[in-house]
Amino acid sequence: MFKKVLIANRGEIALRVVRACRELGVRSVVVHSTRDRDSAAVDLADESVQIGPPQPKKSYLNAAAVLEAALRTGAQAIHPGYGFLSEDPDFAEACEAEGLVFIGPPAAAMKQLGSKQSARSLMAAAGLPLLPGSLDELDEDSALRLAEHIGFPVIVKASAGGGGRGMQVVEERERFLSQYRDTQATARMLFGDGSVYVEKYLVAARHVEIQILCDGHGNAIHLGTRDCTVQRRHQKLIEEAPAPGLPGEVVDELGRSALRAAQTAGYQGAGTFEFLAGPDGSCYFMEVNCRIQVEHPVTEMVTGIDLVAEQMRIASGEPLALHQGEVALRGAAIECRINAEDPDRGFAPAPGLLREFVPAAGPFVRVDTHMRSGAAIAPEYDSLIAKLIVWSPDRGGAISRMQQALGEFRIAGEGVRTTRDFLRQVLDRTEFREARHSTSLVGQMTESQG
After folding, report:
1. Where are the chain's structural domains?
2. 101 forms bridges with which residues in the sheet?
3. Nearest to 211 by CA among 110, 306, 292, 117
4. What are phi and psi of 249, to 5 degrees?
């Protein structure tokens, strides 16, 4: 195991990794911007290094500054968390060149799976089901012909995209070319890569994930499913494990296929294979996330496996301690993302100063957060305030416990609005309680309220 790890992130995930380091007996170094100098992660870490101003491009996305901090403090490895540099294969290669371990998959695997187009090709070869769409880059005329052939609606996606960004649903032929070009422009701006592809858009779909772990000794396991169907603008609000209503044989087949594809790509570490599930139960591969997911706690709650600790053990060269037959899922877990957003204004960011912040508590209630009373929600970063996670022996009990926990969670501040009350409304919906909801649920709710 490493003696010292640098954490190249901020917020709740930085604090989460610091805690994992402490449990493993590993010293931690947190890099931070000037905005985050008084953050909870900085307070808890063994060391901290200021690397730039609040703007992410000048701090958390400044690879040279992160590497210099790691070398200066004697860190042996870098944990990138999620977002920022976590899925940047160039950064992973730069770590290797400097003699540092990147706690994540090898750069080659990240390149192959991080591009949605190349990942689709690999998944097709591995036998995973795909929605009709393009496997290669197309010019505009070819893309339009393909869209007409597979039928509208279609979705145009950035090949290098992630986190729900860089995609547009196209409902009709007349708008295809303009939205295709808009997505290309967005992809160039966000990811520095304007390549996009076209895929059939599945109406009334659910968003299902398979969590995997692969070590450097040829061992690989999956940890069951998550359901991330409740989303706004392709970004998740509620996640749960396991995904309700999926037959065991479907889960087993998806898990086997995901592991086969991951090992073919030489994957190591924690990763997530994402699927869309149609109303008939058919599942189609969507993308691979080559990092720890925001929603990883629900998998931890039903398996008892610390995914962040497993990332570090794998990166340090240790083999997986579990075989697939030893993975046991117990009960049901739900996570709600409490964001500083105003649902009444299209989930517009609503940052400000927190006057009151009193997290929920009680049996089988977990809160992953970096916030506290008197802290400021910074406008430069993601709007996530806290992740509220609950566990119960069954899904109905988890929903009830989450409702109670959300009701106890007290958040107030100057200009601050949150998703807390909206999440309670979602949990009250009959279609959610009966697991009949789709990715369009939030849109339907906001339209009816407007």
Report:
1. 4-103, 132-200, 206-449
2. 77
3. 292
4. -70, -30
* CATH H-level, domain 206-449: superfamily: ATP-grasp fold, B domain (3.30.470.20)
Burial of 331 (0-12, 13-18, 19+ CB in 10 A): middle
Q: Smallest Cα–Cα separation from 71: which of 53, 89, 94, 52? A: 94
Kind plus residue range of the DSSP H or E element containing 113: helix 107-114
CATH 3.30.1490.20 is held by the domain 132-200 = yes
Q: How far apart are CA 310 and CA 61, in angstroms?
A: 25
Q: Do domains 132-200 and 206-449 have the same CATH topology?
A: no
Find the distance separating the first CA and the last CA of the chain, reported in whole Å. Answer: 54
- Is the distance from CB of 342 to CB of 16 less than 8 angstroms? no
Residue 354 has a CB neighbour count (10 Å cut-off) of: 20
In this prediction the pTM is 0.92
CA 167 – CA 158 distance, rounded (Å): 6
Residues belonging to the active site = 291
Domain 4-103 falls in which CATH fold?
Rossmann fold (3.40.50)
CB 400 within 8 A of CB 394: no
DSSP codes, 202-241: -TT-EEEEEEEEE-TTS-EEEEEEEEEEEEETTEEEEEEE
* pLDDT tens profile 104-124: 999 999 999 987 778 888 888
Summarised one tens digit per residue, pLDDT across range 223-260 is: 999 999 999 988 999 999 999 999 999 999 999 999 99
